[in-house]
Structure formats: C-alpha cells, structure tokens
Amino acid sequence: MTPGQRAETRIAELGISDPQDIDIEAIAFDAGIQVEYENLIGCEATLVGFGSSAIATIKPSGGRGRERFSIAHELGHWDMHRGKSFQCRVDDPSNNLASDVKLEREADDFASHILIPSTLLTPIIKSFKLPSLKQIEEVADLFQTSTLATTIRLAKIDTLPVVMACYTGTKRRWHIAAPHTPKRWWLKEKLDEDSFAYDLLSRGTPCPAPRKQSADAWFDNDDAEEFEVLEQCYSPAQGQVLVILYLTDTEMFERGFDPSVGRRRY
Ligand SMILES: [Zn+2]
C-alpha cells in the first residue's frame, strides 16, 4: 500500500465521512501517540517512540492547519517508520517537494491523505469544476488544513487538468502536475515576465481567480504559443509565488512527443 492508501484505509476504518470529524489528535492518540506543544528550536516537530507508544512534540505555529499537518506527518512516521526517531523541519509539504527525502515525503503523503481523504475531497472538487483560490480556501477551511497543503492535494487527486509550481523570486523551487497531464509540456524554470505570477511577485498585483494566459508564458515548448491556459496565483510566503495552471484546451492533451524541450534537447 502507498502512504496515501494507508492513511485513507485508517479513515475508512474509523468510519469518518465528514471532514469535521477528522480529529487528528484523537486519531494520533488512538494510534498510541501523545501530542505535546513546545517551542522547539531547529525543527517544527519531533517523534520519539517507546514500545507501542510515542510522543509527538509540535512547535506552535499560530496556524491550526500547519499544526494539524505536523501531527499528521508524525502519525505517518509512526505508522510507517516505527523504531526510528524523527526531527522534522516542516509543517507544510512545500519544503519536501523542493527536496527529495524519501521518508519525509512518505510522511507528507500520509498526512495529506489522512487530513484530506480522496473520498471526501473528490465530490467537492467535482462540484467546483475549476476551483478558484477562494474556493480552494473554502476547502481548506472545511478540512482545517493550510491553503498550501490543500492546493497540493488538488494536483494529486488527478481529477483536474492542473499543473502547479512554486517560485522563489523568479526561480522555480518545485512543481507538480496531475498525473494524467501530458509530460511533454515543459514548465519554465524561470518566471516569465508576461505571467500574472510575475506581476504578483514584482508589483503585488493579485490574480486570485483563473484568468486566460498564453501557454507560451509558462511552457518552453515552441508550440506553446498556439494555446491558452488559465492561470491564478498567490503568495504562500514572503518572496514566493505559487501558481495554479489549468490546461483547459483538450488539444494540449493530444499533442505528441516534443524532442526540443527539457533534458531531451541534449
Ligand atoms: Zn518527518
């Protein structure tokens, strides 16, 4: 089973069918974890196990969504990586997307699925068609998760034609795409000056709802200029911008292999 499947199985076993019933501290307690809050230095959460019980220590962050993510992340370690102790540097999945630490990413996957199970999320997303940021924030409120964790979950659920990326300054930090979107579209590594994300970062101009944009502003492919995508973006932290692109033109899904982009150029 994948980390996500393990988490969703737990939700099913507990008979949870309403986002408001995902009491992550109670679920952790049920698994033998006592949650404590303490001003940790150098990390945001730790897990120390003794036999069949453990203590998860969480650094108060001021954001309930982030604290819940930290608890769920430690629960993931306890569920999958028992016998080890952890000092985790993240209370949101963004940092681990930028790096590649296997156990940390597994714990993040577990956390995002236990906090936002597919069975509860999918019907909500279907009702929105192409969710705006405001609607994503409504979903985040409903599940008591951070906007960032909720946004990332949208790509992984694979029901939307979505590509998303986070840029620090103009440099790409990480990106993810819904698995069914074509790999041939090669996302730019540097933020294009024509993008709304660039406007947000450089001038503070918001773009909180999907707006038409030339695909050329986002993809390196020569034929990108033939297409339009929908772009919206927000700033999850100072100096950062997160962009959500919807590939609404079905022809973008039908274009074949492109030998002229990315690593294939060499
Ligand atoms: Zn961890």
Topology at a glance:
Blueprint: H1 3-13, H2 24-30, E1 33-37, E2 45-50, E3 53-58, H3 64-80, E4 86-88, H4 94-98, H5 102-115, H6 118-128, H7 133-143, H8 147-156, E5 162-168, E6 171-177, H9 196-203, E7 207-214, E8 228-234, E9 240-246, H10 251-254
Parallel strand pairs: 1-3
Antiparallel strand pairs: 2-3, 2-4, 5-6, 5-9, 7-8, 8-9
Describe the 3D structure:
The protein has helices at residues 3-13, 24-30, 64-80, 94-98, 102-115, 118-128, 133-143, 147-156, 196-203, 251-254, and strands at residues 33-37, 45-50, 53-58, 86-88, 162-168, 171-177, 207-214, 228-234, 240-246. By secondary structure, the protein is an alpha+beta fold. The protein folds into two domains: 3-115, Arc Repressor Mutant, subunit A (Orthogonal Bundle); 161-265. A five-stranded antiparallel sheet has the order 6-5-9-8-7. It has a four-stranded mixed sheet with strand order 1-3-2-4. Strand 5 (162-168) and strand 6 (171-177) form a beta hairpin. Helix 3 packs across helix 5 (102-115). The two termini are 37 Å apart. The mean pLDDT is 93. It binds zinc ion. Zinc ion binds next to helix 3, strand 4 and helix 5.
